[in-house]
Amino acid sequence: MSAPKVYDVVVLGSGIAGSMLGAILARHGTRVLILDAGVHPKFAIGESTIPYTLVALRTVAERYDVPEIKTLATFTNCTRVIAPSHGVKKHFGFLIHHEGQSQDPAETNQFNTPGLLHEASHMFRQDTDAYLFHAALKYGCEQRQNAAVVDVEFDGAGADVTIANGERFRGRYVVDASGFRSPLAEKYGLRDTPCRFKHHSRSMWNHMVGVTPTDQLFAHQPRTALPPVPWYQGTVHHMFERGWFWVIGFDNHKASRSPLCSVGLTLDPRRYPRDESLSPGAEFEQYAQRFPDIARQYQGARPVRDWISTGRLQYSSRQVVGDRWCLLSHAAGFIDPLFSRGLSNTAEAVNALAWRLLDAVRDDDFSAERFEYIDRLQQSLFDFNDELVNAAFISFSDYQLWSAVFRIWAWGSNAGTFRLQEGLTEFMRDGRDSHLRDLEEAAHLGFYWPDHDGYRGLFDTMVRLCDEVEAGVTSSAEAADRLYVDLVAADFVPKHFGFSDRNRRFLNPTPVTLIKTIRWARQHADPRVRDLMFGVGKDALLHKLTGRRIF
Q1: Residues whose CB falls within 8 Å of the CB of residue 77, separated by 6 or more in sequence, listed in order
Q2: pLDDT at 115
Q3: Quick check: 249 and 122 in contact, CB under 8 A?
């Protein structure tokens, strides 16, 4: 038998993580093979983007000179360059529901991002993933689809990767980006047993046609009860005690040529154990019927494929890098789709891994020590998201507590996005990679805003109080009141925007609120917040006033 061809890197999985990394590596001369058990186009969820994701994608695209990745960073480009199959995302929308009751408009929140970051989208993943996969091939990646990996054997010089038909491939390094059913995690027993995460949820999902736009459910409400941006033009979260439904429209703008809407249900299996006598579709409908307005949204809607249903979603790994291998993104672990963190985590991990791998290929040093940061980064991202989502699920039973958790999440996400954009702006000015490497040096790795002690303290207080509520030590009302005291007192939480105002349901940037916030920053803000507000924050105001896009 002839010796197999040797690649610098063998990537397992051709989804968004594997294809993005493959495109970067091949663009810079690395010999890459991508193996996948399936074939494109492939159904996938993880469709909702957030401002942090968009800036992370732009950073990766500019840093590694792969413009196709930047296409994913705007709704306009996704629609024009890839296909008119994507939805627009202008906000995060949250509505609390109680069984048997109509939704109370006083228990709603909406977070609209500043205009300069307003190009978020609902990605139709089978199109975006195939687009990136084809970009990777354009840059020189080789591929084998319908090629399930059955074995990976490492030695001191690399790894032999065997697929189901017996073919064998040789790589100097292996990146497993294949997701939950990671061949490396299975072969080497890398999963934590039990999973270390606090949060518990299971899920079911599908794409449907005929979903009623959310705004039609509430057309009878007075104008003052309605949000500034239509509900259906963003990601809708219908929350209830220990669970939530998602509504992610691909058909929510005039340019769309898609009739589809992504729908799903995520709930705590300890409170809502799976009914094995029901099909996933029947179980989804059963839970929807408990909430009158949710039932009306899905009434008459029809699935376009078989339902997918899971056991517990959460899984963790004791180790995600080793000598000559790495688990990337969902191969390393998963928490919950709440807050749409999956794509941003993927982009952040790819960004940090790519330059290390390019150096390793040149130096022929693929030791675990060289990639130790990737282990810390991914584990920290999972741990932060676990604490955040678990606190949110606890808060769903009380609107005032949820409202405080919502604001702490929203400002941390915004500040982290501004911080990342600040580094990208500096990089774009002089091309020095040190601006982006410096972002890795942070005391609180894994956080949206990882270099601010005050925000870390506020977040930890939120987690502690929510845990006390769950344990029955503190009431929801007491926890909410204490968090609002901290939000109002914190000089690192902007005033006038609504991040500390419990009576403002909708966080919507306007020229007036942005001007007031920048004035507050000049006179009263924490120095780091002042820097952010007079950099990216001022750019946001200019964009709002002039329509000129800053980056």
Answers
A1: 70, 71
A2: 54
A3: yes
Q: Which of 87-91, 112-116, 378-382, 398-402 has the least mean pLDDT? A: 112-116
454 burial level (CB within 10 Å; 0-12, 13-18, 19+): middle
Dump pLDDT digits (tens) for 175-226: 999 999 999 999 999 999 999 999 999 999 999 999 999 999 998 888 888 9
Q: Average pLDDT, stretch 29-53?
A: 95
Residue carrying structure tokens 């993933």: 129
- With a cut of 70, say whether residue 114 has pLDDT above it: no
How far is the C-alpha of 119 from the C-alpha of 428, rounded, in Å? 20
Q: What is the mean pLDDT of residues 416-435?
A: 95
Dmax over CA atoms of the chain, in Å, equals 76
Model confidence, pTM: 0.94
pLDDT at 283 over 80: yes
* Burial class for 463, CB neighbours closer than 10 Å (0-12, 13-18, 19+): buried
Per-residue confidence (pLDDT) for residue 2, from 0 to 100: 66
Distance of alpha carbon 20 from the chain centroid? 16
CB 53 within 8 A of CB 421: no
Nearest to 11 by CA among 117, 103, 149, 121: 149
Dihedral angle computed from the Cα positions of residues 138, 51, 288 and 252, in that order, rounded to the nearest 10 degrees: -70
From CA 385, how far away is CA 129, in angstroms rounded?
Answer: 24
- With CA atoms as reference, report the closest residue to 44 among 290, 316, 242, 329: 329
Report d(CA 58, CA 264) in Å as an integer.
29
Question: Exposed, middle or buried, 337 (CB in 10 Å: 0-12/13-18/19+)?
Answer: buried
How many whole angstroms separate alpha carbon 184 and alpha carbon 534?
46
User: What backbone phi and psi angles, to 5 degrees, belong to 206?
Assistant: -170, 175
What's the residue count for the chain? 551
- Reported as a single tens digit per residue, the pLDDT across 127-136 is 999 999 999 9
Closest alpha carbon to 264 in 468, 105, 456, 45: 45
Beta strands 108-111 and 243-249, pairing class? unpaired
C-alpha span between 14 and 21 (Å, rounded) = 10
Closest to 419 measured CA to CA, from 159, 52, 2 = 52
Which value, to the nearest 10 degrees, does the dihedral of the CA atoms of residues 54, 199, 92, 282 take?
A: 110
Neighbours of 436 (CB within 10 A): 20
Mean pLDDT for 466-475 is 98
DSSP 8-state code for residue 219: T
